[in-house]
Amino acid sequence: MARKRRHSPQTVAVVLALAEEPTRWRYGYELSRRLEIKAGSMYPILMRLTDRGLLETTWESDAPPGRPPRHLYRLTSEGRALAAELSQAPVHDEGRVAWSTINLAPNWGTT
Fold it and tell me: With the CA atoms of 5, 10, 16 and 20 taken in that order, what torsion angle do they form, in degrees rounded to the nearest 10?
């Protein structure tokens, strides 16, 4: 049986922000500033989404001299499917996406 989890409002915001331009690579700091999510929350969200196969990652290949390369993220096809489901979720009066119970990883709990 597939495992169900609730998404935090921050996780929903990250997935939906990445879905706006699903083929564009984004870095965590850009998402953190745009969504006003602190780095201490953003990077664990990005790591969990990556571990669940919802994001693909790469390192920036053309970092300017004197700055280390940044880690970049974008949605996988599974991540785009999740974003489509989340975009259909009910919205609270305050404009936030309601807590949803979406299947994060169809293969969890199976061998």
Answer: -160
Q: What separation in angstroms does the CA of 84 have from each of 23, 53, 63, 69? A: 15, 16, 32, 31
Angle between helices 9-19 and 77-87 (to 10 degrees): 110
Distance CA 97, CA 91 (A): 4
pLDDT in tens, 34-68: 999 999 999 999 999 999 999 999 998 888 888 88
The total of other beta-carbon atoms located within 10 Å of residue 83's CB is 21
CATH class of 7-58+69-85: mainly alpha
Q: Closest Cα to residue 16, out of 94, 105, 100? A: 100
